[in-house]
Amino acid sequence: GENVEQHPSTLSVQEGDSAVIKCTYSDSASNYFPWYKQELGKRPQLIIDIRSNVGEKKDQRIAVTLNKTAKHFSLHITETQPEDSAVYFCAARTTSGTYKYIFGTGTRLKVLA
Amino acid sequence: DADVTQTPRNRITKTGKRIMLECSQTKGHDRMYWYRQDPGLGLRLIYYSFDVKDINKGEISDGYSVSRQAQAKFSLSLESAIPNQTALYFCATSKGPSQSTQYFGPGTRLTVL
Predict the structure, then answer these.
(1) Angle at B51 between CA B47 and CA B57, to 5 degrees
(2) CB–CB of A21/A78 below 8 Å?
(3) B43:A98 CB<8 A
């Protein structure tokens, strides 16, 4: 079935450094790839997304890249700040049959001051 | 997002009890979803509904049932709760196939003793 693998499961970086989280999806029919940030005790919130017809998208310190051939996409956070500490989830929306979202297992990012 | 609400926010129940979790939205979205979140497992889809007359099983539907009472309301039931259903439950909504963003409710923390 459809699957999304996410790595690493935990990531610690020094404040000001960059963080990269990677996801690989299995369903080549996937066409939409959102990233969510979940702070402790809160709901997942969309931070950036990318569609399959685009290779890269950037929003201030956050960027996402997509490699359709390899079926992987990555989240890049530059100049990390303590408030970036959270759990980040990637997801892929499949268009096979019905439009379902398959989530990765999450990355706990800790930004050390 | 205040447009997607869930009740109750916290619930403690006993094994064998029937329990219902409710989700309401004022976003006018046609699509609604129920997810379960467990540590290290990310968000797993329980059921989803693309309109009032459309209900679909997700990857972990066993032990759960749903009801789409109206476009704005989607309820999740545990007919006979068991301890391994202890988890954080999220409702989410989205609008049609072309607008892909999912919006999550605040979550319901369910504990089954």
Answers:
(1) 20
(2) no
(3) no
Residue A108 CB burial class (10 angstroms; 0-12, 13-18, ≥19): middle
HSE, side-chain direction, 13 A CA sphere, residue A85: 12
Contact B94, B106 (CB under 8 A): no
Span A1-44, pLDDT tens digits: 678 999 999 999 999 999 999 999 998 889 899 999 999 989 99
Contact A92, A68 (CB under 8 A): no
What pLDDT was estimated at residue B98? 66
Judging contacts by C-beta atoms under 8 Å, the chain A residues touching residue B40 are 9, 105-106
Of the candidates B48, B97, B104, which has its C-beta nearest A43's C-beta?
B104
Type of residue numbered A28: S
